[in-house]
């Protein structure tokens, strides 16, 4: 069991009534709480959501607060400070004065910093410190009026040749307020990508999907991501740039195995973070499985840190891997299914 969940169980006597576990780890915490607790989970991680449902845990996959009344919430600290600000705002907007908000997180994950973000809403109290984690309580002393989701968007513009794109990103989405270096290295090569049915794996704020749509309004683009905030950001980016939403399919995935088949191309700046931890499983799976999802002569285009072993994984699957660029610490890699 996740050590954060173990700390919650240590302090389970503080919990009662309808309790919402926000950003909870993928474990059995919701089932191990005492009888006076009716627990639900709010997650924006689709893989976790599917695991909760499989375990018959009541789970909500969304960027918005579930449409139910709760007596208490337990927030598992997210990596992003901005995302925690958003979560706290919507929690305070939905709960009543005097109700308890609990916060749990790893010390190395910034739980002490996160606890300070509780302070504008009420007095805070550290209830426990164990398993390299901390557990905090705050009783609500201030109400908030719910702001629309659009108020939380950060935007920036990118331009390649004659194409300009305004990127819209919600809190917690990768590279929320600027274009990351890897994607910047990849973008000039998108005009070479085979047109047709294309998957953007790890779509983030929709930089790649939006740019592909700008290049060719007839592309059929599948924006794939595990994160609900990323999928919604991609949709908002398309709307903001007046791109054709009929050519976009937003698809939550647990991993690349959920991607469509018979694709003409897969394009990706693959993800390698899960919470505060580095995890290459999803991106390595992409390198190994991409060919299975491509048509004959379908293409794989990815950008990755030059120190990663993706070329070897791609060669094992495609029998070749072509280096298109090596700039600023990133490589653009290409392979064709034959």
Automatic annotation (TrEMBL):
Q: Which Pfam families match?
A: MTS, MTS_N
Question: What keywords are assigned to this protein?
Answer: Cytoplasm, Methyltransferase, rRNA processing, S-adenosyl-L-methionine, Transferase
Q: Where is the Methyltransferase small N-terminal domain?
A: 5-156
The principal location of this protein is cytoplasm
> What's the Enzyme Commission number for this chain?
2.1.1.172
Q: Methyltransferase small domain spans which residues? A: 165-333
Which residues, by range, are in coiled-coil regions?
none
Per UniProt, the enzyme's principal EC class comes to: transferase
What this protein catalyses is: guanosine(1207) in 16S rRNA + S-adenosyl-L-methionine = N(2)-methylguanosine(1207) in 16S rRNA + S-adenosyl-L-homocysteine + H(+)
Q: Name one GO molecular function term.
A: 16S rRNA (guanine(1207)-N(2))-methyltransferase activity
- GO CC annotations on file: cytoplasm
The subcellular location is: Cytoplasm
Which branch of life, at top level? Answer: Bacteria
* CDD domains tied to this protein: AdoMet_MTases (cd02440)
InterPro entries membership: DNA_methylase_N6_adenine_CS, Mtase_sm_N, rRNA_ssu_MeTfrase_C, RsmC/RlmG, SAM-dependent_MTases_sf, Small_mtfrase_dom
**Keyword flag Transferase:** yes
What quaternary arrangement does the UniProt entry report?
Monomer.
The family this protein is said to belong to: Belongs to the methyltransferase superfamily. RsmC family.
Tell me the function of this protein. Answer: Specifically methylates the guanine in position 1207 of 16S rRNA in the 30S particle.
Record-given protein name = Ribosomal RNA small subunit methyltransferase C
Write down the species: Acinetobacter beijerinckii CIP 110307
């Amino acid at each position: 069991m996740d050590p954060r969940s173990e700390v919650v169980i240590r302090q389970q006597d503080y919990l009662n009534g309808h309790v919402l576990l926000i950003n909870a780890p993928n474990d059995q915490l919701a089932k191990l709480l005492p009888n006076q607790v009716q627990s639900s989970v709010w997650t924006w991680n689709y893989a976790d959501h599917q695991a909760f449902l499989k375990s018959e845990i009541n789970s909500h996959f969304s960027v918005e607060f579930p449409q139910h009344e709760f007596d208490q919430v337990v927030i598992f600290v997210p990596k992003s400070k901005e995302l925690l600000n958003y979560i706290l705002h919507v929690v305070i907007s939905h709960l009543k004065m005097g109700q308890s908000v609990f916060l749990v997180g790893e010390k190395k994950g910034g739980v002490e910093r996160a606890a300070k973000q509780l302070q504008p809403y009420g007095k805070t109290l550290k209830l426990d410190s164990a398993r390299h984690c901390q557990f905090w309580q705050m009783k609500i002393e201030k109400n908030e009026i719910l702001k629309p989701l659009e108020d939380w968007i950060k935007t920036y513009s990118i331009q390649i040749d004659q194409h300009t794109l305004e990127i819209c990103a919600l809190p917690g989405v990768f590279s929320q307020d600027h274009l990351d270096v890897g994607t910047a290295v990849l973008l000039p090569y998108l005009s070479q990508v085979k047109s047709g049915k294309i998957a953007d794996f790890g779509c983030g704020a929709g930089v790649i999907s939006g740019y592909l749509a700008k290049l060719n309004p007839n592309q059929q683009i599948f924006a794939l991501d595990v994160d609900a905030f990323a999928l919604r950001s991609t949709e908002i980016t398309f709307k903001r740039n007046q791109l054709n939403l009929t050519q976009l399919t937003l698809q939550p995935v647990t991993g690349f195995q959920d991607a469509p088949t018979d694709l003409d191309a897969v394009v990706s700046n693959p993800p390698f973070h899960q919470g505060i931890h580095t995890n290459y499983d999803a991106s390595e799976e992409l390198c190994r499985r991409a060919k299975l999802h491509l048509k004959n002569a379908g293409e794989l285009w990815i950008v990755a840190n030059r120190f990663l072993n993706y070329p070897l994984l791609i060669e094992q699957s495609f029998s070749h891997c072509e280096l298109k660029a090596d700039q600023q610490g990133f490589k653009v890699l290409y392979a064709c299914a034959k």
